[in-house]
Amino acid sequence: MAYHPADMSQTIKWRFVSCGGSSRVSNGQLVFLLLTFCVLARSPARGDWPEFRGPWGDGHVSAPGDTNLIGFPLHWSETNNIKWKTEVPHRGWSTPVVMGGQVWLTTATLDGHDFFAIGLDAETGQIRFNKKVFHSDNPEPLGNGASMNCYATPSPVLESGRVYVHFGSLGTACLDTTTGEVLWKREDLRCRHYRGPSSSLVSFENLLILTMDGVDVQYHAALDKKTGQTVWKTNRSVAWNDESVPGPMARDGDLRKAHSTPLIVTAAQKPLMLSAGAKAAYGYDPRTGRELWRVQYPDWSVAPRPLFDRGLAYIVTGLVKTELWAVKSDLQGDVTDTAVVWKLKTHVGKYASPILVDGLIYTAADESFLTCIEAATGQTVWTERIGGKYAASPIYADGRLYFLDQQGATTVIKPGRTFEVLAKNTLDDGFMASPAASGKAFFLRTRTHLYRVESL
Q: Residue 449's closest CA among 119, 125, 150?
């Protein structure tokens, strides 16, 4: 979850002491603990994709600092490097999650009446579980949101023995991954999503964190993973000031909703949850839900997940005046006038999350542009038209960046200050869901199928 090596020593020492170890940790003990942690921290990179955007929440397959090549494919097609292809019933844009030889995803009927958790065998692609988890007699129609959203867009969280699925206000549940049985469920966390839920679940320690940015209410809630009970709940604090704004957008509540998923990082040796909502982005303490800071902007319906590096949070501001902001993360209170380091105002992706590699940020806009920016300064390095429109967030594996478009093409580029396309691959249907990876394989979900893609 975006914890970085520079912050590890204090984190490991704290965990050692909290588990009964001596507060006097020698240098030798600390080195041993760090090496042990690094081995454990790297293991998910090879075998697990537990949530939206992977084990660190940033689209990277390998752990920070790990440059070993794994063997992911560069080329594929419907007839090349496809280990299996499985039709997925109904509709869903949620990212598949992978662990322990299983793949889980969510889906829902087109009319939004029934909601399912689907578990597949990662080796064969066979559907082992197809569990109806929730039913709604009167789901709100998606309206014009159906062009980009559906009733099963939020991605699950997977951990040993349990998978957590989420359909916004229509319900959140925990299932046993061995039996497929529901261990607990919640249907009382209300929010009017208006054009469908989008924000994915976030796992942190013993908590499952939900983001409910609707047209009526806007809040985060943290549930106890074991019981599903609410541990904390925090409302968005920004003043809307839209009561006198003319037009249907303000009247219907569009100016208050958002679709982004928070990112939990280590900042100043403490956990920090970065969260982008309508009209403001926030820093929260994920253990308590306490708001630490807020930076305001004049936009709404933000979808991309934040990034974090070297004390800066990178936030996309929304759907209409889409900008990418670099924000200092170590301040307190309303930091709108003091925290913004730079702003990028052109060719910023509205739907696909940006990705950061070696000090450079890449953002895929929905009008086919790919832009590379210096993370420290916000200066544009290059902008190229690569074709396609982008909703799925990119993935970084084996020193390559993979961008999946809504028409079914994947453009593979070499990251760096010179634009270089390495490959272009096409599958039969388009990508709305973001990719996952496990072992040497990509798990790619199109509008209709799930593929296991690897070098055969």
A: 125
* DSSP calls for 354-421: PEEETTEEEEE-TTSEEEEEETTT--EEEEEE--S---SPPEEETTEEEEE-TTSEEEEE--SSS--E
Kindly report the number of other CB atoms within 10 A of residue 70's CB atom: 15
Residue whose structure tokens are 């588990």: 19
Q: Which pLDDT value is given to residue 366?
A: 80
Asked if residues 414 and 69 have their Cβ atoms less than 8 Å apart, the reply is no
Q: 346 vs 6, 364, 454, CA distance in Å?
A: 32, 11, 35
| Cβ-based burial of 52 (10 A; exposed 0-12, middle 13-18, buried ≥19) | buried
Q: Are 81 and 456 in contact (CB under 8 A)?
A: yes
Contacts of 355 (CB under 8 A, 6+ apart): 58, 59, 60, 307, 361, 362, 393, 394, 395, 396, 401
Residue 415 one-letter amino acid: P
Cβ neighbours of 416 (radius 10 Å): 15
Closest residue by Cα to residue 404 from 420, 386, 418: 386
Does pTM surpass 0.85?
Answer: yes
Q: Is 246 exposed, middle or buried (CB count within 10 Å of its CB: 0-12, 13-18, 19+)? A: exposed
Q: What's the pLDDT tens digit per position in 170-194? A: 999 999 999 999 999 999 999 999 9
42, pLDDT greater than 90: no
Q: What would the DSSP string read from start to end of 190-204?
A: ----SS---PPPEEE
Q: pLDDT category, 145, cuts 50, 70, 90?
A: confident
Query: Given strand 409-413, what is the order of strands in its sheet?
Result: 395-397, 400-404, 409-413, 421-426
Q: What is the pLDDT of residues 351-362, one digit of tens each?
A: 999 999 999 999
Q: HSE-up of 410 (CA within 13 Å, CB side)?
A: 31
Query: Measured in Å, how far apart are the chain's first and last C-alpha atoms?
Result: 31
CA angle (437, 199, 293) in 5-degree steps: 110
Residue 42, SS3 per DSSP:
helix
